[in-house]
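User: Fold this; tokens only.

Assistant: Input:
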Amino acid sequence: DENDTICCQEQINRSIYWADGFVFVYSITDYESYRVIRPLHQHIRKIHPNANIPLLLMANKGDLLRARQVSTKEGHQLANELGCPYSEVSARENFEGVHEAFQQLCQELSRIIGNCNGEKRRGLHLIRPKSPNMQELKRRLKQALSSKGKTATML
């Protein structure tokens, strides 16, 4: 129902506010998954307008070249627009590429947090919401998506 959808959206917004970094993942075989990244990034920027938050753009399914709908050039263009590193990976054939991409994000996060020099970390001067209960978040999202006669709302 509508209240569950609103509550789920609030949970997602709290999760975005609570996060210290983001990984945007799309499939090279699904242009729609690529197209959703910009609006999602804009939504995150509304919640974190001035924060220096590490981002990573990952194109998955790099092994399915014959089914490609998103070019490597488009991936690089989007990464430049978002100001973040870009990785094209295949979780199926080479998990090392996925691991390296996440390591890169973690190193950037450590660098940013380490540069605080004893100052309060970004956002900690505000009352940050408690880390969301992921099981509850998953339950509410599943419930919102399975509501009969309702359409799921994307960020």
